[in-house]
Design brief:
single chain, alpha/beta, 5-stranded parallel sheet, 11 strands, globular
């Protein structure tokens, strides 16, 4: 596998009971690329992103992160599970996922959410984590809400905190699920600028979105489900 390929997927499939979500999906994502993941509602875009962050396990096929194969094993009942939890904890440091719903920790403020992800996810020193949290909150125009708890944030504000948390994590691979769904036009433009910068810095970015104008502006390639 070429050294600049950060994510490679080989013929992965996923189903729930008798419902097939997707079948034989293959693609590779290199450093400095932005891919758009497109498809109708219910096509499995969110499920695919979850499989790439190992929150769900494909029923078949393989996933490679920075040329390293994610190890799985099959139980007697046919269920596929993670084979090496230490490997997954290590590989997750290379990936940041922005969920379609923000999934912020309710007992922490916006700033604390961003700091905690860095400290517990990558063992980053607290002073550095604080600096990065403040930087991204400011960049996403959320500095005035840094000490606000998730229950007091609007949908768009919570989404910006989730995006800031992913960016502060400084992962090699960014997975974004409908990142503009609660953003206005100006903030969508800001996010586009930020993702272009991340691309120039060598990040591999995969975006699932219904925002076609946003995708046309920044995507290098398309993956269709």
């Amino acid at each position: 596998m070429p050294s600049n390929i950060l994510l490679k997927v080989e013929k992965i499939s996923k189903k729930y009971s008798d419902k097939v979500v997707f079948t034989d999906i293959s693609f590779s994502l290199s450093a400095g690329e932005i891919f758009a993941l497109v498809g109708a509602s219910g096509a499995g875009k969110s499920t695919l992103l979850h499989c790439l962050n190992f929150l769900e396990i494909p029923d078949s096929g393989e996933v490679f992160i920075s040329s390293e194969k994610v190890l799985t094993k099959t139980k007697k009942d046919g269920t596929r599970i993670i084979a090496n939890k230490k490997q997954i904890r290590r590989l997750r440091q290379k990936i940041a996922l922005v969920f379609q719903s923000p999934h912020l920790w309710s007992h922490w403020t916006a700033r604390e959410n961003i700091i905690a992800a860095q400290i517990y996810g990558k063992k980053i020193a607290k002073n550095i984590a604080c600096e990065k949290a403040d930087f991204w909150l400011n960049r996403l125009q959320m500095s005035d809400k840094s000490d606000t708890y998730p229950s007091q944030l609007s949908g768009g504000q919570a989404q910006r905190v989730a995006i800031a948390r992913a960016l502060a994590f400084e992962a090699e691979i960014l997975l974004l699920d409908e990142p503009t769904s609660a953003l206005d036009e100006k903030l969508t433009e800001t996010l586009a600028e930020i993702l272009e910068e991340q691309k120039e810095n060598g990040k591999a970015i995969l975006i699932a979105s219904h925002d076609k104008s946003f995708l046309r502006e920044i995507a290098d390639k398309y993956i269709e489900l």
